[in-house]
Amino acid sequence: MPTYKAPVRDMRFLMNEVFDFESHYKTIPEGEEATPDMVEAIIGEMAKLCENTLAPLYQTGDEEGCKFEDGKVTTPKGFKEAYDEFVAGGWQGLSHPVEFGGQGLPASLGLIKSEMMATANWSFTMYPGLSMGAMNTIQMHGSDQQLQDYLVPLTEGRWGGTMCLTEPQCGTDLGQVKTKAEPQEDGSYKISGTKIFISSGEHDLTENIVHIVLARLPDAPKGTKGISLFIVPKYLPGKIGEDNGVHCGSLEKKMGIKASATCVMNFDEATGFLIGPENQGLECMFTFMNTARIGTSIQGLAHAELSYQGALTYAKERKSMRALSGKKEPDAIADSLIHHGDVRRMLLKQKAVAEGGRAMIYFAAQYADKMISAAQADNDEEYKKWDDELGFLTPILKGFLTEKGLEVANDGMQVFGGHGYIKEHGMEQIVRDARISTLYEGTTGIQALDLLGRKVLLLTKGKCVRDFSKKLVDFGTKNLRDPKLRPFAWKLLKIAAEWNYLTTRIMLVAAKDRDVVSTASYDFLMYSGYAMMAYFWALQAGVARDKLENGGNEPAEFYKAKLATAEFYFDRMLPSAKAHADAALKPTKSTMQLKPEHFSFDYE
Amino acid sequence: MPTYKAPVRDMRFLMNEVFDFESHYKTIPEGEEATPDMVEAIIGEMAKLCENTLAPLYQTGDEEGCKFEDGKVTTPKGFKEAYDEFVAGGWQGLSHPVEFGGQGLPASLGLIKSEMMATANWSFTMYPGLSMGAMNTIQMHGSDQQLQDYLVPLTEGRWGGTMCLTEPQCGTDLGQVKTKAEPQEDGSYKISGTKIFISSGEHDLTENIVHIVLARLPDAPKGTKGISLFIVPKYLPGKIGEDNGVHCGSLEKKMGIKASATCVMNFDEATGFLIGPENQGLECMFTFMNTARIGTSIQGLAHAELSYQGALTYAKERKSMRALSGKKEPDAIADSLIHHGDVRRMLLKQKAVAEGGRAMIYFAAQYADKMISAAQADNDEEYKKWDDELGFLTPILKGFLTEKGLEVANDGMQVFGGHGYIKEHGMEQIVRDARISTLYEGTTGIQALDLLGRKVLLLTKGKCVRDFSKKLVDFGTKNLRDPKLRPFAWKLLKIAAEWNYLTTRIMLVAAKDRDVVSTASYDFLMYSGYAMMAYFWALQAGVARDKLENGGNEPAEFYKAKLATAEFYFDRMLPSAKAHADAALKPTKSTMQLKPEHFSFDYE
């Protein structure tokens, strides 16, 4: 079983040397308290909680799973105590307003906290993570009374929260939602319907659970324009313990994340309260979708990191065969796995995704800070600007990082050979847990449509790609004469040109043939992910080169490893971008021409 | 849960229209009885057994798993009855000699049988599959007495068999094997040691189990040159029920293939018998390695097919959103998934891997027929020729098909969205079961080393690539003027040139820098897989085009689907080949330069 160690050296590198969080924090009110000392203290304390409390429950949580009996859900042994410790530390409200019981620190610190928790124990992290969704929705759209009634206990962590969207007949296509809301004379509503796949829908960690539920008012318009949002608590405020018609019907049996309770939730005339305007539930729901999706994209990075930690440890211990270029450990019965080129290929891929993904998340976290800061200040223009910037990043982060996270979690298993398949080593659990990440919070296909169809074509006509790719061009032109950075610079210039070409070409086709949006979207998303990660690896390589030449480079091997990993990424991973570009530019007919009725495995 | 339907139309297409098995069977003695009527009867009967008996046990077998109590292993409910039905049908000895109780049919029919069983229920199929390994070893290297004592009951299926190679300290690196063989005065040996990961090591399906065990004689040379092969039965012949010191110590808890018993086997002075010459155990073991590995490569195809069957059925039923080019099912609440481009991308990938993989296996199966036919006739020269031909194909089939099989099994889950993660739909089981395929029988990394280091560089200096790529050139030059086939022809010519260029370049580098073999091997393997599958898709497209234009095309949609899938493969999947070629040609230093001690996740 991998023993989680918080990668604090890399976190400090990104915060202090690559992105300069200290200066960034000076630009937002929430950053006032986020002094370097405070940040260090938070990272240090969170690392302890993760390494000592959460990580040891990762494998046992999977083995034991959640139990369902008489409508009650019991989380695995140790989860309640760990949650209490988490609450006692004030961690839930870390980046929520002081007026509701939070610590008022920047959202980015919340994401940095989440990454450590996610890597130590993803299933555990989902409980406070889902609460976050409810908290953000209430904070943004709730009335003053709702803020007091719900946001305060949620921020304190005394209560948990959920998002209740999916129903048996629909997940992605929320226009099909059937759950009903009947208005009552007192201004409340009776909510009735069945929701499925509700993470943290019922559990024993908190005294109450606040459900944010999508439902339809009587005579609401059909489809997505007739959906409203409701707060439906397990127990009404002040009536803890009194049944409100909210019940868990069963737990889903899943491939992984077994310590996370995935519930079928039945609402039987449960009392609920409208939040936000009538029939605008989906818009309200999507307000914080970007931050929620960044939260999920962290899973990609987290499982890459954890699997890398496990695989690297094994690769240094396990002896097998001799290196092709001659014995490396002549006194041992064989050389360690790490001396074999193909094992290194897998380890470097893992390292590239974990550290490249971390850089992408930290970068986006600064945008999230700015967006939330603008929201707190009711500055709509600034809010929209940063929400749009984030809107371009999130489908790439969510889609690309979870796909690559799953891929390199599999690589980690592969490093173990047959042992990777055996439960006790813990490597297969990471793969099973990672597998959900490309499915929920919008599948990869949905992220791809959101990116290409909405963000790139509809909303910005390619401007978002042009804007972001300027960063690649800037790095490229600035470093083209630096002997160490030239290969990165040169390739970034090529990628920037190709990314824009790809966007323009698809845009031209889409004007005549809408199908291109769905046939090219996945490849466009993956291309964008490779391109974006290339930029962040070049950026890290630039800092590393600078430190190695100009000092401040303790330990030197950290920086050498950065340069070597960047080189590996550009040489061995980036070529896949071209394959995605080639595929994306092919005629739509190669995907669309076969008639649905001719698709078969059983031709007569 | 996918309901397995044997893809008999595609099987007939390959046997009768693409590869002409009828003529092929006339060239080998074993083919005499394999008349078209006989082949049809075998396919029909096997399809029934698979669809009606084996497939219904697939999901229940996973849920129940194998049980271990008091040294005994119990297979899941229904397995024993299904195995008895399998034995009663004479299926185990289908392609083994009549003189030992078999039906004497060609090896290729055995592989075609295996594909159906593998797809219907992989875990079940492993029991008779492992026996096959023992049967082949005994047939090739056993004394007359051993043939009578062991091969007959194995061929009848009354006894099962295993291969006992791996020990806790070594899997790939068998030179580290420690199990001891002490010679006894009666010519037998006392075998002592522990073997792990022994599939079918203990179970309740057969009255006896014959283990083929790698062990060391006293004073044997160190490493691989001091390993001998032994037959060690659970019960000695004629002494059924009398303990022979062969015991199952425990069952491994695994990610998947839970109905297959993976045993720790303890040999405590168990009586065994030398098979083959002293200290040449590894060579003997590897005699039939090619056929064993083709057997495992079938798993890639099987899981691609089963996942495709499940995903296609769901994609035609589930309604979600509207197609981008306008409503396709205006009377329904939404369009079926199959109308969405990104879902089609995944389905077509699955279809391309399943049917392309099937073509690759059927092609290799004819080589296996010729090799085995030569072996039966003691024609060493012919045997070596076909063994060499197969030796080039097997690492590609095993490495590429299992990797792609796993990938598209994941695609099938993805088509289901969140439901794919839930056990009851059966899609996640396919992924868990498929996951072992890239690990056992030599990991993908080992296949890649075998292909590039041994088959391509050491043994043939690139000739095997030159020879195989001639097929691509032949197809290309022949069809360059055919308007329908021109795109395939043109790309095959390019691929043939690139494949040889890649081989030559790596060969030149390898002369100075051995590390290239291990840093480029994986990408070279994947490139070779894409190239080879391209050829077999072009071949199928050629036949389909011919049938559509010249008649004999019932049903026409089958042939149209072939052409459409070929086009999809060339347009959307083949671009990945170039990415692998690009990566393979990068300097070794991008993988090798980082010192092992600088590889870390925890820099101080």
From TrEMBL, chains A, B:
Residue ranges of domain Acyl-CoA dehydrogenase/oxidase C-terminal in the record: 279-450
Coiled coil regions in record: none
EC number: 1.3.99.41
Gene3D superfamilies: Acyl-CoA dehydrogenase/oxidase, N-terminal domain, Butyryl-CoA Dehydrogenase, subunit A, domain 2, Butyryl-CoA Dehydrogenase, subunit A, domain 3
Cofactor entry: FAD
Domain Acyl-CoA oxidase/dehydrogenase middle: 163-269
Top-rank taxon: Bacteria
Key words of the record: FAD, Flavoprotein, Oxidoreductase
InterPro entries with a match to the protein in the record: Acyl-CoA_dh-like_C_dom, Acyl-CoA_Oxase/DH_mid-dom, Acyl-CoA_Oxase/DH_mid-dom_sf, AcylCo_DH-like_C, AcylCo_DH/oxidase_C, AcylCoA_DH/ox_N, AcylCoA_DH/ox_N_sf, AcylCoA_DH/oxidase_NM_dom_sf
GO molecular function list: flavin adenine dinucleotide binding; oxidoreductase activity, acting on the CH-CH group of donors
Enzyme class, UniProt record, top EC level: oxidoreductase
Acetyl-CoA dehydrogenase-like C-terminal domain location: 482-594
Catalytic activity: 3-(methylsulfanyl)propanoyl-CoA + oxidized [electron-transfer flavoprotein] + H(+) = 3-(methylsulfanyl)acryloyl-CoA + reduced [electron-transfer flavoprotein]
Keyword Flavoprotein in annotation: yes
Acyl-CoA dehydrogenase/oxidase N-terminal domain ranges (all copies): 40-157
Role of this protein: Involved in the assimilation of dimethylsulphoniopropionate (DMSP), an important compound in the fixation of carbon in marine phytoplankton, by mediating the conversion of 3-(methylthio)propanoyl-CoA (MMPA-CoA) to 3-(methylthio)acryloyl-CoA (MTA-CoA).
UniProt family annotation: Belongs to the acyl-CoA dehydrogenase family.
Record's protein name: 3-methylmercaptopropionyl-CoA dehydrogenase
